[in-house]
Structure formats: structure tokens, C-alpha cells
Amino acid sequence: MMRICNPGLVVVLIIASTLAAACGDDGSASATETDTGAETDTTSAGSTTSVDSETGVESATDTDTDTDTGGTTEDPSPFDGEPLPPADPGDWIWVDFPEALCRDGSSTGIGVRYGAENKVVIFFEGGGACFNQVSCLTNPSAYNGSNFDGWKDGGGQSGIFNLENPDNPVGEWSFVYVPYCTGDVHAGDSPGSEAPGSGGPQQFVGYRNVEAFLERVYPTFKGAEQVLVTGVSAGGFGAALNYPRISDSFKGEVVLLDDSGPPMADMFLKPCLQSQWREFWGLDMTLPASCDDCFPDDGGGLVNLISYYGEAYPNEVKGLISSEQDSVIRTFYGFGGNDCKAILPTMSGAEYKDGLYDLRDNYIKDGAMWGSFIIPGETHTWIGGNGTFYNTEVSGMLLVDWVTDLLARDPVHISP
Asked: What CATH number has the domain bearing residue 134?
């Protein structure tokens, strides 16, 4: 049992308990604050499509005929592993990936639910981050099938996962649920790294894990007409940071939806804090190498990913959801105060609000096919709860309708 010999740790534990409670929120706060047989068909382009008789999921072959050249077009994806196991549509299943590790070194996996439509959601879970003693205390270090069993009939049926609500625009889509246990916003490539107060070497390998998952996810859903890459909190960051290789792989339309994971300009998200993340998690290994402005000498510049995505993916729809004064994200950003020497992580709601609107007005709006949905108050995450996803309304627009329009290639900017 750990003994608290340093009175200063009392402050640490108070902050940690607050963050843990917030990061564990499933988004259900009040919205006012808030080896089966397969049938094959030949397409007009000369490719073949397999339809799994149990799951109804289509997957195209790798040799589509190029009607302009008379040759064949190669599969754009490097992911060519064994497809995921079949299951009854509508039922969640857990798939172990022994090679995918949590930060404590234990193995993890993904959840899968097949739907009726030939479309798929890849959802990244949130849950804080690990870069100092306080933050590491709030972040899960392990996740396995038992954890998933406790989630699938609760959180796995609410909000965007709800099968019963006819207003859910993705209710009949297939889902891939990526849990979170690496402490690196699903973007690390730094095994054995140690953050201050983390308790020893950590496996910050979220980005590697996603690669292992895609080895099987892509062959299963490569014929999908549309893919929604989304997530909440740390998973919102994770969806954005993994978006390029997902978009580059699938031939169908790939939409990005970041819920409560907004990067901000260096004035608000301090370069010293961004530098810590780069060092501990190995972000420089996983950020797009062609994003020239993402690697400034002072370690900042993560906000420039927004501009880069607008330029690199001008025809793909992208969206951001955030509260004006998100109490959880601004607490984490507060660790950058006093050149990352702040005793207490403090960032005012007003400062966060300024940073959010700066992000929208000077980065998001400058990019192609971006939308945003900004909500009054401090509530953290929105698409995971039935109340917040279906009932939240801003300036006459329901959040669920905004997401529906986003998927119909009609992104708009909504704010109070």
C-alpha cells in the first residue's frame, strides 16, 4: 500500500480525483449545460464484392479494373491481415490482439459490432493522458475483455452507439470500438518511456496498437462506402492523429469527427507542454512528416495539423465538437502554466474560450470541408450520451442533426 509521506501530494490527489471523475463521464450530463459462406458480385468496374452471410458486410477485392487505362488499380492500403471474426449483426464482440499493449504492458484488443449498412464507425475512447504524476493517476493503464463486457451493455448502447433511436444517423452502421489504455491519446510510438511520476517505464504505443488493429479492420471493411473516424476527449485527439492513414487506406469517403479534443494555438496550448508530449510519447514519429509546420523548434505547432488536414484532404469532411469552456481539457492545458512549472493546473474558462474561437476562426474556417459545433458551458464530451447527443441544441440546430448533415457532406459552423 502506498503511504503519503509528502503533504504536497494531497493537492495532487485532489486534482487527480477531480480529473478521474470527469474523464470517466459517459456524456450523460444534462444537455442544457449541456468462417461463414459469402456471396460475390461483380461490379461495373470489374472488381468483385464479397458479402458475408452472417454480418452482411461487403469487402471489395484488390484488383479493381481501371476504366481509363484498361489496367488494374492496386489496393491503396498496406493493411492485409486476417479479417475480423463474424458475429450476429447488432451484437458486440471482443477481439483480442496479443500484440497490442496497454501502458502497463498487458495486452488489449477492440470491440466490434456489425451493422446492416455498408458503412463503419471507428471510435476512439477517451480517458485522460499520462505525462506527469497527476495526469497518470487519472488515466487507465489496462483494458481487456472483462472491461469491455462491463461497457458493452451500458455505454455501448448509448449516444452514438444507440441502435434504437431512429434519429441516430449511424445506428445501422458497423462499429469498431478502440479502447484507451496507453496514456498517449492513441498516438504514441515510445515503448519503455517514462514520464515523471508515472511509476516506471510505460508502453506509450497507442499508434502502434492502431496499426495492429487496422491490419484486420481494413480487410474486414475495405468495401465500406463511408467511414466515420471519431472519438471523445483523448479519443478525439486520437481520431484526428490517426485520420491520415485511415483516410489514405479506404476507397470510400472517410469523415473525421473530433469530440472534445481541440488542439489550440501555442498562445493557449503552451509549447513546453506540447514538447513533453512529443518527448514522452514519441509524437514526432507519428505526426505526418509532410506537415512542415508541425515541427517547430520550440516543440509547439500541433494546431497546424488542422490547416494541414484542410490542405491535404480538401474533399474529405471534417468536424469538431467542443464546449466553450470545457472543464476537463482546460485543466490538462493548465499544466502548461508558468512554463510548465505551475503548482496547480489552471486555465480559466475565458482563456479556453478565446483559444477555441481562435482555433475555429483562424485554422478550421481556413480549411476546406470543416465544420464546428460549439456549445455553451463546461460539459466534457457529447456524442457518447443519449441526452447530450440527441437533445443538445445550439442556435436552433440539434447536435444530432449537425452530425447527420456532416455525414451528408454539408458541414456548417454552429455556435451560440
From this structure: 3.40.50.1820
DSSP class of residue 303 equals: T
Beta-carbon contacts of residue 25 (< 8 Å; ≥ 6 apart): 380, 381
Establish if 353 belongs to a structural domain.
yes
- Whether 67 maps to a domain, the answer reads no
For the cut 90, the answer to whether the pLDDT of residue 13 exceeds it is: no
11: pLDDT confidence band, cut at 50, 70 and 90? very low
From residue 247, alpha-carbon distances to 75, 227, 230, 368, 395 in Å are: 13, 9, 12, 15, 31
| Residue 116 C-alpha from the chain's centroid | 23
Residue pair 370/310 in contact by the 8 Å Cβ criterion: yes
Give the CA distances from residue 189 to residues 111, 124, 208, 288, 309, in Å, rounded to whole numbers and listed in that order: 22, 17, 6, 13, 21
Residue with cell 506537415: 291
**Coil, helix or strand at residue 320:** strand
Tally the domains of the chain: 1
Residues with Cβ < 8 Å from 72, sequence gap 6 or more?
Answer: 63, 64, 65, 66
Based on its alpha-carbon atoms, the radius of gyration of the chain, rounded to whole angstroms, reads 21
Using DSSP's 3-state secondary structure scheme, residue 114 falls into coil
Q: Is residue 69 part of a domain?
A: no
**pLDDT given at position 271:** 98
User: Partners of 230 in the beta sheet?
Assistant: 123, 257
Q: Which helix (H) or strand (E) holds 121?
A: strand 119-124
Q: Is residue 62 part of a domain?
A: no
What pLDDT is attached to residue 342? 85
What value does the mean pLDDT take over residues 163-168?
Answer: 97
| 95-144: pLDDT as tens digits | 999 999 999 999 999 999 999 999 999 999 999 999 999 999 989 999 99
Do 124 and 214 contact (CB within 8 A), yes or no? Answer: no
pLDDT at position 51: 53
Is the pLDDT confidence value at 158 over 60? Answer: yes
Of residues 75 and 210, more confidence is placed in: 210
Per the structure, the complete domain to which residue 393 belongs is given by: 9-36+75-414
